[in-house]
Structure formats: C-alpha cells, structure tokens
Specification:
This protein has 584 residues and is an alpha/beta fold. It has 4 domains: 2-96, PriA, 3(prime) DNA-binding domain (GIY-YIG endonuclease); 113-294, P-loop containing nucleotide triphosphate hydrolases (Rossmann fold, 3-Layer(aba) Sandwich), CATH 3.40.50; 299-337 and 394-507, Rossmann fold, CATH 3.40.50; 521-579, Alpha-Beta Plaits, CATH 3.30.70.860. The strands form 6 sheets. Strands 9-10-8-11-12-7-13 form a 7-stranded parallel sheet, sandwiched between helices. It has a 6-stranded mixed sheet with strand order 5-2-1-4-3-6. Strands 14-24-23-15-22-21 form a 6-stranded parallel sheet, sandwiched between helices. α1 packs across α2 (89-95), α14 packs parallel to α15 (490-496) and α15 packs antiparallel against α16 (501-514). The longest helix has 15 residues, at 458-472. The structure holds a DNA duplex (12 and 12 nucleotides).
Length: 584
DNA sequence: CGGACAAGCTGA
DNA sequence: CAGCTTGTCCGG
C-alpha cells in the first residue's frame, strides 16, 4: 500500500492506494502514477510506501504506473520547499518531474569511466580546463577555497568566466550547475561538452541526470534535477532575480539547490559580481584580488546632471558625443511608450485623467490614463490647448529624439519587441541588456529612476543592472555612462571603484536600522482574503499594512515566518503569499 | 481541481 | 415547483 499526492494544486493532501502485484516492482517513492479520485483519474506521486492501512477505509488500486519521478530525497525536498515558500507540495513535485514520461533510465548511457570522478576526498582538478582567452585567470587558490567550504559566496568581476568554477565542481563528481536563464545554461553546456565533460541539460536530459555520472546544467528548475549522488552545487550570478519563480509559490532556484547541498553535506558555491546581502549572510565571502576585480569592471562615466539646463532633457553633452561617435551604444531607460507624463504648454497643467485624476500617458495620437485606461484626445483638459510638452519621455519618444540628434536610424528594444535592431545606437528598457551583446558602451539615461525607486532592494538591484551592463560591454574594454543627479550615491561609488563591498557596508547599516532583510525575513500577503489570513497569524510575526490589499509579514528568521504561515488555514484561492518578495 | 448536492432565485 | 444559478464540501 502506498500514499499518493494527487497532481491537483487545490488538493494538498495524500490518499492511500493498493499496489497491484504486477506493479509492485515499478513503484517506489517518487514514482508517477494515475489514480482514481472522486470519480476521475488524476496523476500523482507516490510519496510514501509500505503504508499501514487506516482501518475502515476501502482502498482503490493504483490505476496505472506512468513512469519515473523524482527520487525520494527530492520528494522530501519538495516538502521542505512547500513549507519554505508556503505553497502546495504538488507544485514542487511537478517542477521536479520529467516533462515527458520516462519509462526507463536505459538509453541514457553513462559517460566513459575516465570522466566519472567523484570519489570524494581532496580537491584534484579533473581534466585541465583548456583556457581560451585570458578570462580564466582566477587563481587556483580561490577556486580551491570555494569548494573547501560548505557555503561560499565568490565575488568575481562581471567579465569573469564561470567555466573554471563549473569545471572544478564537475571534477568532484555529479554537480548541479544553475544559471539565471535557459540560454546561459545552453551556452555553458556546449562549452562543457567541448571540454569533454559528460553534461546533461535540464529539463531535456532528465533521464540522463537520473542515471548519474553527469554534470547537470540548467536554469532555476535544474535545482530539482534527479542527481543520484550530488557532489557540488554552483549557482552562477546568484544575485539574479530570475532565480525566483514569478508565479506563486515563488520559490528561488538557487535557494533550493543550496538546501540540497546542505542536506547532502556537499559544497555550494554562489558566484556573483554583486552578491546580495542575504547571500552574504548565508555563506562565506571570497573575493578575487583587488587588482583582478578592478580590471574586470569597465570605466564608468558618471554624468552629474544637477546643474544641467533642464531643456537638455535626457541628453547631456557627453551622451550626445557618445551616440554620435559611431560606436555601438545601448541607451537604457526603464520607461516604455512615448511619453509617461505630459503638461500643457499654454497653462502648465499636468495631463491627467478626467475620471480618476491619475497621470495620462501618450498613446499614438491621443492620451490614456495610466491607472484606469480611459482614453481621450490629446489636448489640455483645463484650457483646451493642443500643445502638450513631454515631461517624462518613454523609450519610443527617445528613439525619435536620438534619431534627430544622431542623424541616423535608431533601434528600439523593449520586453515586447522580437527583432534585434542592427543600428549602432539602440534605445531600450532593461530588456535590451539581456538581448544585446558585444556593445561598446551602455548609457543609462535616467539612472535616478533605479536608485530612488521606493523598494528596499533598489540599491542592490541598481548595482546588478550596472554589473549586467558591464558584462554586455565586455568588462574593461567597454564604457558605461550614467546620467544622474545623485553622483555620489554608494551604488555609483561601488561601481566606479569596482568595489561592491562599498555598497554592502552602507546598505547593511541601513537594513539593520530599518529591520529589513537580511536582519529579518518578509512575506507579502495579498488578495481578497488577505485580511482574514493576516488576522489569524500568530503573534510570533509582525504584521505591517495594509498598503492597498497588500500586507507585509515580518519575522526574525524563516523558521518563525514559515511556521507562522503554515499554522493558519488558508482560504482557498483567494489569497496570495510571497515569501521573500523581490520588491517591497 | 471538478463533481455532487443543497440552498436560493425566478418565472409561470 | 421545475429549472437554473451559486456556494460549499470533499476526495482513498
């Protein structure tokens, strides 16, 4: 008899079934099965075997064995994640299961014995990494030390090649390597295979990973890969917010992988040019040499705009010179559309919505309210003038203005655009930094928007943006231009001096004073039934809010926070809980 | 989630 | 009071 968790998000509950004799050799903890439940057949996972039957319940047999599922250790890990991110277990088991049915692990041949290391013990490197180019000059000491610790945060400059760390992990045995995006994972995988490593892509090579003898590479989901004997974990760019699942439960891939490493007692290495404060609290910080770090950040040109003529708009003299230089430049502005804020050129009044009073933005020829979406023709609601001036330009508007300044065509990239423009000058939102590479320079037109946004992680996120830009311009070879009215902000100081530690110190003090992470932990509770849930939380947690329909719950650590969240009955479907919200 | 069943609303 | 909608309950 086995206990089965149905793959139905709303049923976070197990049911017992009989195992027919002919299935018994295929059924163990993790196996994916089909079961009859309440008059229908649903998928589910065996989460316990050899269950003693509860008296007085007539059991149904398993309807079918579908195939391989996550190993027992991962089933257990899913239980932990359900607690840690206050979500149903089924979500995590789904994340850990193969996309297509796996009937046998055969056909996933193990790699040649020469590459199967992982006998444990000291730290011999495997086949020496063939260094192409000069970016693999980390000293061996740093790598050795990283894997000698259980939890290391290795701060490397933005242009550092993570491959040496990945190879070192692979030399220890079956390693798990996480990257923020699937594209980065695919690239890394190709390079590992070129190096002669047996490597499996998550989630495509699920069965190969389960068979063992490979290093598994993937995005955040790879944290759930069925590696039989884990030897090490590496998270590349561990600061990246892409590790966090956007949908609830919003689990974090590298936190899951780190928990796995902890459970198995193997090293976990988080690489980042700008480690988060939370990661620094989690692990021991190791840094590249000062000289190496300084050499790996580009030159950062901070343009102090405090005394510039406001009529020069988003374009300082240095910016104009840069875009006219003929070099490949991306101008970054995190505002989509043409104009996000307008004023009447005649009476000076702001363009606002007639219905709700919120700011109206330019949309085609007319205006649209940014809050309620009401559209109206482009004229002043107060005096009727048709002349409106742009107070806050968006990307599309900047494209037009830069084309006039450069005298050539300028491309545009936002999250929605699909084609990559081939013009030397490109304007875009942050998305442009993920889509372009090998630029000569990146210019942040209004960096204050990043620095001053009212979110407690704003500074860290702003530095991460600069690190991202630094990588896109190829480290030291490129340039970053930053227009700001806060030129002495710690974020800019840290980037200019290639010393993220400067931000760490300032930010830690601020967070401690305000009782914010990493000194505390937060969860966001929202939705129609949030008040009910918040009201029934135990007094071990602090409640803050509401802000609209959002509440913040604060506790000294995850054990208290998650226990508190788990202790209250959840009104189904009507409340959303986000543990460790990225923005707040 | 999705079926079962009860309670409430409507119209003839 | 049939016929339909809406809400609540519960699953082996």
């Amino acid at each position: 008899m086995v206990r089965v968790l149905p793959d139905v998000a709303a049923i976070d509950r197990c049911f017992d079934y009989l195992v027919p004799d002919e299935m018994s050799d295929q059924v163990r903890v993790g196996t994916i099965v089909r079961v009859a439940l309440h008059g229908r057949r649903v998928r589910g996972w065996v989460v316990e075997d050899d269950v003693t039957p509860a008296p007085g319940v007539r059991l149904q047999p398993l309807a079918k064995v579908t195939g391989w599922g996550p190993p027992a250790a991962i089933v257990d890990l899913a239980g932990w994640a359900a607690w840690r991110w206050a979500g149903p277990r089924a979500t995590f088991l789904r994340a850990a299961s193969p996309r297509r049915r796996v009937v046998s692990l055969m056909g996933a041949p193990p790699p040649p014995p020469s590459l199967r290391s992982g006998q444990g013990g000291s730290f011999p490197y495997g086949p020496p990494a063939v260094s192409a180019g000069g970016s693999t000059n980390h000293n061996q000491e740093l790598i050795g030390e990283a894997f000698a610790n259980e939890r290391s945060v290795v701060r490397v400059p933005p242009d550092a090649d993570p491959l040496v760390f990945v190879s070192a992990a692979a030399s220890l045995g079956d390693a798990l390597v996480l990257t923020p995006s699937a594209a980065q994972a695919a690239h890394l995988l190709r390079r590992l295979r070129r190096e002669g490593r047996a490597a499996a892509a998550w989630p495509h090579d699920w069965a190969r990973a389960a068979a063992g003898g490979v290093v598994v590479v993937g995005g955040r989901g790879a944290a759930w890969a069925p590696v039989p004997t884990l030897a090490a974990v590496v998270a590349i760019d561990a600061h990246d917010e892409a590790y966090q699942e956007e949908r609830t439960p919003s689990w974090n891939g590298w936190h899951v992988a780190a928990e796995r490493a902890r459970r198995d007692g193997v090293p976990c290495v988080a690489l980042s040019p700008c480690p988060t404060l939370e990661s620094l609290r989690w692990g021991r910080l190791l840094t590249a040499s000062r000289a190496r770090e300084r050499a790996g950040w580009p030159s950062i040109d901070v343009v102090d705009r405090r005394n510039d003529d406001p009529r020069s708009g988003l374009y300082s003299e240095r910016l104009v010179k840069l875009v006219r230089s003929g070099r490949r430049v991306a101008c970054i502005l995190n505002r989509k559309g043409r104009a996000r804020l307008l004023a009447c050129a005649a009476c000076g009044g702001l363009a606002r919505c007639e219905r709700c009073g919120a700011a109206a933005e330019q949309l085609g020829e007319g205006l649209r309210c940014r809050a309620c979406g009401l559209e109206r023709p482009s004229l002043c609601a107060v005096c009727g003038s048709q002349r409106l001036k742009v107070l806050r330009a968006g990307v599309s508007r900047v494209v037009e203005e830069l084309e006039a300044l450069v005298g050539a065509s300028v491309g545009e990239i936002t999250g929605q655009t699909t084609a990559t423009p081939d013009t030397p000058v490109v304007v875009g939102t942050e998305a442009a930094l993920h889509r372009l590479d090998e630029l000569d320079a990146v210019a942040f037109l209004d960096f204050d928007q990043e620095l001053l946004v009212p979110r407690f992680r704003a500074s860290e996120q702003a530095l991460a943006l600069l690190a991202r830009a630094a990588r896109v311009v190829g480290g030291r070879r490129g340039n970053i231009l930053v227009q700001t009215r806060v030129p002495d902000h710690e974020v800019l100081e840290a980037a200019v001096h290639a010393d993220p530690g400067r931000l760490t110190i300032a930010e830690l003090a601020r967070r401690e004073a305000l009782g914010l992470p990493p000194y505390t932990v937060l969860a966001e509770v929202s939705g129609p039934d949030a008040p009910t849930m918040v009201a029934s939380l135990p007094s071990s947690v602090e409640r803050m809010g509401p802000d609209g329909d959002r509440w913040l719950v604060r506790a000294p650590d995850h054990s208290i926070l998650c226990d508190a969240l788990a202790s209250v009955a959840r009104p189904r479907g009507r409340v959303r809980v986000v543990v460790d919200p990225a923005r707040s």
